[in-house]
Amino acid sequence: MVQKLLLKTLGINEYNPAQSVKNVSLIALGVLLAGIGLKGFLLPNSFLDGGVMGMSLLINITTDIPLPYLIVIVNLPFIFLAYSQVSKFFAIKTLLGIVGLAICIAFIEIPLVTSDKLLIAIFGGFFLGAGIGMSIRGGGVLDGTEVLALYISRKTVLSVGDVIIIINVLIFSVAAFLINIETALYAMLTYLSASKTIDFLIHGIEEYTGVTIISEKSEEIRVMIIEQLGRGVTIFKAKRGFGKRGRKDEDLDVVYTVLTRLEIQKLTNEIENIDPTAFVVQQSLNDVKGGMIKKLPLH
Prior knowledge:
- This protein is an alpha+beta fold and about 300 residues long.
- The chain has helices at about 1-10, 15-40, 50-65, 65-85, 90-105, 115-135, 145-155, 160-180, 180-205, 220-230, 265-275; strands at about 210-215, 235-240, 240-245, 245, 250-260, 280-285.
- The strands form two sheets. The protein has a four-stranded antiparallel sheet, with helices on one face. Strands 3-4 form a two-stranded antiparallel ribbon.
- A hairpin with a 2-residue loop joins strand 3 (about 240-245) and strand 4 (about 245).
- Helix 2 (about 15-40) runs antiparallel to helix 6 (about 115-135) and helix 3 runs antiparallel to helix 4.
- The radius of gyration is 24 Å and the shape is elongated.
- The two termini are about 30 Å apart.
C-alpha cells in the first residue's frame, strides 16, 4: 500500500525494476560523458555551449562562481517547470542527473585532452551532447532548455525549436558582448556539435521515414516492399484528381510504408524499376511504435 501511494505521488503508474536500472545506468553514463566534455575540453579552455549549460558556463567565466554550484542553481527554475509541466518523477530524475553532473565536475579529475580550438569545439560538444542524449534516453535531462521551450510553446505561437533558437541567440550575443566574438562563434560550433549528437542518440542512425507511393502499379510495389524489404504496408483507397496528364476520375490504391533511412535508396530504386512515373512522397518521422518496425537502439 505504501509503495503504491509513493508511486502515485511520483506520477508513476507501474514500477518496472529492470527499466529503472536501465534508466539510472543511462543517466549515470550521461553524467560521465558530459563531465568528460566539460572537464576534458570546454572548462580548461574557457569555452561555451548553448542552453542552460551555456548560461552556467558564461556566468562562471564572467564571475568565477564555481561551475558545480551554477549548474544546480541555474537549472532549479527549469526543474520546477518540469515538475509542473511534465511529471514529478521526471523532475526528480532530472534533479538527480544535474546534481550528479555537479558532483562529477567537482570531484572527478579528468585530464585536458587538447588545446586545439577546433577540436575542443567539436569533441567537447560531442561528449556534452552524448551525455545529454543518454540522460534523455534515461528519462531525464541535464539541461533545462527543452523544458523551458516546452512551457513557452504552450503559452505562445512559437514552436519548441523556435524557442531554443531564440534562447541560444541571446546567449551567444551576450557572450560576444561580454567576452569576444571569437568565443561566441566557437560556442555556436560547440552547440551545433552537441545538438547533432543529441539528435543522433535520440533518433538513432535508423531514423524512420514514412513513404507514400501513388502508382498505377501499386500491387506490384506492395508485393516488392513485403517480399524484398520485409516491411509492412498499408493500402489507402483513393481517387485521382489532377496530374501531369490533366484531370482524371478513377479509383486507385495508395501504398504507405515506414522504413529506415538506410532502406530508402533501395526502395526508390525498386520503384523506379517497376514504375518510373510513380509519385513518391517521403516524410521524416520522430518515432514509431508497433507493426513490423523494430525498436530504436538503446530504447
